[in-house]
Amino acid sequence: MIEFELLHLPFLVMVVALSGLGLGLLAKGADRIVLARLQRRIGPPLLQPFFDVAKLMTKHSMVPKGAFAGLFLYLPAAGVCAMAVALALVPVPGWYQPQVQLGDMLVLLYLLAVPAVVIMLSGSASGSTFGAIGFSREMTMMLAYEGPLLLVLLSVAIHVGVAQGGLICLSLTEIVAWQQANGSFITNPWLWPALLAFLSVIPANLGVPPFDVPEAESELLEGPLLEYSGPALAMFKLMSTLKTVVVFSLAVVLFWPGSVMGVAGLAVHLIKCLVLFLTAKTLLRASVGRMRIDQAFLFYFKWPELLGVLSLALVLFGAARG
């Protein structure tokens, strides 16, 4: 198990972020290849996401007339930093354990909201009409999926906290340890509604079809990202990559952690993340079209919200019985 002292935390965040970027860009390359095969296309090479980011880094970032240059250029970098810290908060069972000084599940919840805020503010700072529309849609989607996400995290935290003799557990490390000792939540029927709610939140949280309405290419021409180019646009791609790794790693940690130690534990964790990635993202992209903003909003206020409420009710009922 890898551990770092407090003085080494900046180095830890950097190492975790670089590792996450490498793995995330590889996953995006695999996503493109699998999607192309499903659509009977050849598709790009596996390393194409690396080439895209490298090429953007060599370009010049254009600032549109009327844009707030400071926010426009530096907000994407703030999103990358937030996701780097978020990734450092997620443990890898049997391989990596985050330091308590970095924060807990509550801090991670706030950090997961940063990319959406960055996209909204960037779209507003660009001075573009399409960016303003994307701002509105991003805010609407955020309001729709944050509720179910909070209910899912509360359900897991209360379940483990009560089982430990307390009220709530916000430590992801303790949640993993409890599952390693008592069984993963993926086999616990009481938390199946929470699992389904979390899986349904993933597409909107990552902005992929059918919930990519804030950046709909055919409607808004990438919306908030329309005016971006060069390194600033590359920062958005890196932010998206890190967030993808964070979300799928969190899904594995919350519901499907393993007990294998060492390098084998890391390999098992990555395989599980890849399975969820190809299922919850790639297959979904290939199977459905984009929803309208009103359809997406109502969907999250119906089914994921109900699943989250049901999961929390079951957990509280079980705690009361115990």
TrEMBL record:
Keyword Transmembrane listed: yes
Primary localization: membrane
Keywords for the protein's UniProt record, in alphabetical order: Membrane, Transmembrane, Transmembrane helix
InterPro entries: ComplexI_Subunit1 (IPR052561), NADH_UbQ_OxRdtase_su1/FPO (IPR001694), NADH_UbQ_OxRdtase_su1_CS (IPR018086)
Keyword Transmembrane helix: yes
Transmembrane segments: 6-27, 67-90, 110-135, 147-178, 262-284, 296-320
GO cellular component: a single term: plasma membrane
Subcellular location: Membrane
Membrane topology: Multi-pass membrane protein
Designated name of the protein: NADH-quinone oxidoreductase subunit H
